[in-house]
Amino acid sequence: MKNKIVVLGAGISGLATAFQLQQKGFEVTVVERNKRPGGSMISERKEGFLIDYGPNSGLEMTPVIRKLVDEAGITEQMIYANEEGDKRYILRNGQLHPLPMSPPQFLKTKLFSTSAKLRLLAEPFVGRSNDGYYQSIAEFVRRRLGSEFLDYAINPFVAGVYAGDPEKLSVKSAFPKLYALEENYGGLIKGMFKGAKERKKRAEQSKQNAKMFSFKDGMQTFPEALTEKLNDVRLECKIKSVKKEGDSFITIYEQGGEEKQLRSDAVISALPAYVAAEVLENIDSELAGHLKEIYYPPVQVLFLGFEKSAVGQALDGFGYLIPQKEEQSYLGAIWSSVIFVNRAPEDKAAFTIFVGGARSPELFEIPRDELFQKVLTEFKRTMEITDDPVFIAEKFWDKAIPQYNLGYVEHENYFNKFEGENPGLFLSGNYRGGISVGDCVKNSEIVANKVSEYLNTNKNKNSKE
Ligand SMILES: Cc1cc2nc3c(=O)[nH]c(=O)nc-3n(C[C@H](O)[C@H](O)[C@H](O)COP(=O)(O)OP(=O)(O)OC[C@H]3O[C@@H](n4cnc5c(N)ncnc54)[C@H](O)[C@@H]3O)c2cc1C
User: Fold this and answer.
1) Alpha-carbon 352 to chain mean position
2) Potential cystine with 331: which of 159, 356, 382, 462 (Cβ 3.0-4.6 Å)?
3) Residue 347: pLDDT band by 50, 70, 90 thresholds?
4) CA-closest candidate to residue 13, choices 217, 241, 275, 192
5) 218 Ramachandran zone, left/alpha/beta (phi>0; psi -120 to 50)
6) Whole-number Å distance between alpha carbons of 120 and 187
7) SS3 content of the chain, % helix, strand, coil (to 5)
8) CA 440, CA 181: separation in Å to the nearest integer?
9) What is the Cβ-side half-sphere exposure of residue 288, based on CA atoms within 13 angstroms?
């Protein structure tokens, strides 16, 4: 008899894992609360604009992405970023400065002072830290690269990736590759050269070199296509809890006011940490405690369309990020219609602006209209825009992106312990192994292999008994 697997949550983590397990011959059921699959991946076409309320793109950092795209039958839908997408800006003293991408650009840039540039050259001579384990990314960068580099490169970068606060994010957990460069090679510059060779062997791309992708109709195409290929995805089903019964698991969910149950040999939770906490509380309350401690800050996404003729700033890049020191009310803006085709009508320009995050959650105490006007004024000033937007769409994410803050290592250790003590139950989702779409897909392969190995070993064991 086929082994049965239940996957909790139809975000990209759950769907990509479910899809690979179905391909391995298992009977997989995905249970999802929402009407539509995709979790954070929400795309919408309106008045000629294409809005991505969650991720605007992914990085093709693992061959698994292309494999899944091909097998889900959406190869023709996949698009890559225009060349302009490589150029990124940072705001300093009210001006946009291109982020230097080569040593000559670095020497010329006005983004960093001469002393900051010289400080960077000293990096190979900075020793290892004794308490790297409990270091924030801010402490790590201050020590290795100096405070100006922290303020004008890492601080905005962390806002762009995690909507995070660099003083709180753990370098070991949130930037494991950076941490490993120091651990394994004694420095970032030394390690970068050696790391490139090792990735080549594993056929992986560094995030820096990986191609940026999306789909003609936005990121939601990906989870939708995976859902189409899956045999059993139950939407509008709210998971309440999971129980253990001998060697099996019972997933209890609510559909249209009715309580239902699913029995399976394995369960993969691909739910947000704070939901997994409730669902798994009766199995392990200590686990629930760890899951509840993972902070998801609020983020407001504003999608604005303007007449192209009203935009003074040259539209030749991915967008820009804002260092905290610049004291603006938003984290940065993606120039959506520059990066990918078909994001706005021909004569319009579309931008996606991010507000709040772990750096400034208190902003949402201001009335929303007031905050919007503040952001709009600041954005128009930087982009030299002379008119009001002709199109506005927005989404408020109450709990946007999990923060791998200091202390995360203890959570991760407990997750591993929990899985060891509860064979057949697997914890997945963007609060483990990276938050990017690329990381979620990469991890889906790891989880699918772990589950299949567990079930195959277990099946053989049971059939011998
Ligand atoms: C605003 C924003 C911008 C982002 N930008 C980028 C970007 O540009 N590039 C990038 O790579 N990444 C980006 N990310 C991160 C990335 O999109 C996410 O980390 C990733 O999509 C998470 O996938 P997931 O499946 O792990 O979780 P989720 O997408 O959160 O999926 C979890 C699923 O569980 C379901 N669920 C919750 N509770 C229940 C319940 N009780 N019963 C049943 N189902 C339930 C949810 O409805 C959801 O479908 C962004 C995220 C956000 C929020």
Assistant:
1) 16
2) 159
3) very high
4) 275
5) left
6) 12
7) 45, 25, 35
8) 22
9) 12
- Please provide the distance, in angstroms rounded to a whole number, between the alpha carbons at the two ends of the chain: 16
Count how many Cα atoms sit within 13 Å of the Cα of residue 254 in the half-sphere of its side chain: 6
What's 237-288 look like in SS3? EEEEEEEEECCEEEEEEEECCEEEEEEECEEEECCCHHHHHHHHCCCCHHHH
288 Cα to the center of ligand 1, angstroms: 19
Residue of 226, 262, 271 to mutate, ligand 1, most atoms within 8 A of C-beta: 271
Chain Cα centroid distance, residue 326: 25
Give the model's pLDDT for residue 31. Answer: 98
Instruction: Return the minimum-mean-pLDDT range out of 10-24, 88-102, 198-212, 230-244.
Output: 198-212
**CA-CA-CA-CA torsion sign (356, 357, 360, 366):** positive
**Average confidence (pLDDT) over 120-139:** 83
d(CA 260, CA 254): 6
C-alpha span between 355 and 361 (Å, rounded): 9
What is the C-alpha radius of gyration for the chain, rounded to an integer number of angstroms? Answer: 23
Question: Domains in the chain and their CATH numbers?
Answer: 4-39+62-71+217-294+404-464 (3.50.50.60), 100-209 (1.10.3110.10)
CB 365 within 8 A of CB 259: no
Output the CA–CA distances (angstroms, integers) from residue 85 to 35, 42, 316, 317, in the order listed: 33, 21, 8, 5
Contact 5, 238 (CB under 8 A): no
How far, in Å, are 48, 85, 346, 348, 396 from residue 388 at the CA level?
18, 25, 18, 12, 21
Q: For residue 431, report the distance from its CA to the centre of ligand 1, in Å.
A: 10
* C-beta separation of 154 from 117 below 8 A: no
Ligand 1 atom closest to the Cα of residue 53 is 1
Residue with tokens 């020191």: 325
Structural tokens at position 138: 């801010």
Residue nearest to atom 46 of ligand 1 (CA): 39
Helix axes 221-229, 63-71, angle to 10 degrees: 60
Q: How far is the CA of 127 from the centre of ligand 1 (A)?
A: 38
Residue nearest to atom 48 of ligand 1 (CA): 39
| CA separation for the pair 207, 210 (Å, rounded) | 5
* Residue 89 identity (one-letter amino acid): Y
AA identity, residue 428: S
**Claim: this prediction has a pTM higher than 0.90:** yes
What distance in angstroms lies between residue 56's CA and the mean position of ligand 1's atoms?
Answer: 12
Count of beta carbons in the 10 Å neighbourhood of residue 97: 17
Q: Residue type at 296?
A: Y
